[in-house]
């Protein structure tokens, strides 16, 4: 984060590239994320820009332990794979580039900030800071409220993205609902979307 006391990541700040430089844009991005349940065990997310162009798609299991999700580009090429790490005191995900499981392809780890929490609060550790058990210093932090899945993402004290979710019974009964995602300039939007998916999958972390 820049040394001056700013509250938001801005144009001119260093690029935050977690997944790839190709997902960092020099302007703010407003994205629409649509989640739709296909059946009891499977669902998918689709990410669109304001013009309605498909940018990313994520599929996988909607329920269960040790499940995974795969992020692909519009052509179906695998970008990254998210895997939940079974039953742990603090729910944890590992994210690898492509379809890999190898340690050298680890991009980042997402973990609950506290074992017991009634609101969204997760820490993100980049691969070079992967000794989560001994390190108390995360690279990013996401925090939100008690009543929905809306949350904000920070790098140190700087806001880098925000996620807004408005629950309606109509969309819930249809098996689908939407998120609005605001990504600050030079911030990797694929990383923010992956974080959203993992937080949403674990909305009942407690």
From TrEMBL:
Q: Per its UniProt entry, which superkingdom is the organism in?
A: Eukaryota
Xref: Gene3D superfamilies:
LURP1-related (2.40.160.200)
Which InterPro entries did the record assign? LOR, LOR_sf, Tubby-like_C
Family of this protein: Belongs to the LOR family.
Recorded hits in PANTHER family, A to Z, give: PROTEIN LURP-ONE-RELATED 14-RELATED, PTHR31087
Q: What is this protein called?
A: Protein LURP-one-related 14-like
| Organism from which the protein derives | Arabis nemorensis
């Amino acid at each position: 984060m820049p040394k001056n006391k700013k509250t938001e990541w801005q144009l001119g700040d260093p690029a935050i590239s977690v997944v790839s430089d190709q997902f960092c844009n020099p302007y703010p991005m407003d994205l629409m994320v649509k989640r739709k349940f296909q059946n009891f065990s499977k669902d998918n997310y689709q990410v669109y820009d304001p013009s309605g162009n498909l940018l990313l798609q994520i599929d996988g299991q909607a329920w269960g332990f040790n499940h995974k999700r795969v992020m692909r580009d519009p052509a179906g090429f695998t970008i990254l794979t998210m895997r939940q790490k079974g039953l742990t005191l603090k729910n944890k995900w590992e994210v690898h580039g492509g379809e890999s499981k190898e340690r050298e392809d680890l991009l980042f780890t997402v973990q609950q900030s506290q074992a017991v929490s009634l609101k969204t609060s997760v820490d993100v550790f980049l691969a070079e800071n992967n000794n989560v058990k001994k390190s108390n210093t995360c690279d990013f932090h996401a925090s939100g409220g008690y009543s929905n899945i809306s949350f904000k993402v920070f790098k140190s004290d700087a806001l880098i993205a925000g996620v807004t979710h408005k629950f309606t019974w109509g969309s819930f009964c249809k098996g689908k609902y939407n998120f609005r995602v605001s990504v600050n300039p030079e911030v990797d939007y694929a990383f923010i979307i992956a974080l959203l998916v993992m937080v949403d999958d674990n909305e009942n972390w407690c």
